[in-house]
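Re: weekly structure request thread

Next one in the queue (147 aa):
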Amino acid sequence: MPDTSDDGDLTAIATRLAVAIGRINRRIRPTNPELSYGQLSALSSVARLGPLRPGDLARLESVSAPSVTRLIANLESKGFVSRTADPADGRAFFIQATPAGEDAVVRARSQRAALLADLLSSYGPDELHRVAGALDVLEAAGQVDRS
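Done, posted below.
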């Protein structure tokens, strides 16, 4: 946790950031998504980190085993993920993104980036520079811990 002289400052910053992220996230959701938010998050994790066991994906996405089973079945029915048997355990399997799944992630990210660029388009160079300056910290805070 960062060293601050006043824990109230950290709490206030975290509260403002959580509200801002939530509002921005709602504003950049596509109106007719190919994937739900949860499906896109899971598919993005599989595309970035896969192949993964379902239990690993459940931990990464902070969902229950039944939820991840439904997610995988839905993504598989859309042709976005495929299963391969675990050579070490015949009862287990890995999931990985298909080319169609990887394309869906790229399309969704591009669409969200375009919506966010539109939101930021009214700001000047100074404001955009401040946003850019915060990106390293925000990206580090958002890193997925695979442990």
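Strands lie at 81-86, 89-97. The radius of gyration is 18 Å.
Next request, please.
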